UniProtKB/TrEMBL annotation:
<keyword id="KW-0375">Hydrogen ion transport</keyword>
<keyword id="KW-0406">Ion transport</keyword>
<keyword id="KW-1003">Cell membrane</keyword>
<comment type="similarity">
    <text>Belongs to the ATPase epsilon chain family.</text>
</comment>
<dbReference type="Pfam" id="PF02823">
    <property type="entry name" value="ATP-synt_DE_N"/>
</dbReference>
<dbReference type="GO" id="GO:0046933">
    <property type="term" value="F:proton-transporting ATP synthase activity, rotational mechanism"/>
</dbReference>
<keyword id="KW-0813">Transport</keyword>
<keyword id="KW-0139">CF(1)</keyword>
<dbReference type="InterPro" id="IPR020546">
    <property type="entry name" value="ATP_synth_F1_dsu/esu_N"/>
</dbReference>
<keyword id="KW-0175">Coiled coil</keyword>
<comment type="function">
    <text>Produces ATP from ADP in the presence of a proton gradient across the membrane.</text>
</comment>
<feature type="domain" description="ATP synthase F1 complex delta/epsilon subunit N-terminal">
    <location>
        <begin position="8"/>
        <end position="87"/>
    </location>
</feature>
<dbReference type="InterPro" id="IPR001469">
    <property type="entry name" value="ATP_synth_F1_dsu/esu"/>
</dbReference>
<dbReference type="GO" id="GO:0005886">
    <property type="term" value="C:plasma membrane"/>
</dbReference>
<protein>
    <recommendedName>
        <fullName>ATP synthase epsilon chain</fullName>
    </recommendedName>
</protein>
<dbReference type="InterPro" id="IPR036771">
    <property type="entry name" value="ATPsynth_dsu/esu_N"/>
</dbReference>
<feature type="coiled-coil region">
    <location>
        <begin position="88"/>
        <end position="115"/>
    </location>
</feature>
Length: 133
């Protein structure tokens, strides 16, 4: 176990459930300003996250990968909260189904905001699975 104060307490929360919670050495998430890496003792941050992938490197050396929709990232006092409408751990995602959803979303039309959001969500889910393998 990592020494006290050298880890972050991380909670990844979707609208309907707690997706992942635990101690981590680092968290990487995509914000509207670009990718951000959070280490222990990071300055307080409140940021908007976009559809993408969140990487959590645990205190035990494991890497957990999740696909998230837009939401918020909050960092304060070695606590990281990631709040998203939808979030899925990579091992929960059916890769073939995600690829089919991507094709359907692309066929729905590029000028449609809902279709563009569906494309970004499907792409994030695919990236999460690929990054975790």
């Amino acid at each position: 176990m990592a020494e006290s104060g050298s880890t972050l307490h991380v909670e990844l929360v979707a609208a309907d459930r707690l997706v992942w919670s635990g101690e981590a050495k680092m968290v990487i998430a995509r914000t509207t300003e670009g990718d951000v890496g959070i280490l222990p003792h990071h300055a307080p941050v409140l940021s908007i996250i976009i559809e993408g992938v969140v990487d959590v490197q645990t205190a035990e050396g494991e890497t957990w990968v999740a696909a998230v929709d837009a939401g918020f990232l909050s960092v304060a006092n070695n606590r990281v909260s990631i709040l998203s409408e939808h979030a899925e751990m990579s091992h929960e995602i059916d890769l073939e189904k995600a690829r089919q959803e991507l094709e359907r979303a692309k066929q729905a039309g590029e000028n449609d905001d809902a279709a563009a959001e569906a494309v970004r969500r499907a792409e994030a889910r695919i990236r999460a699975v690929e990054r975790a393998s």
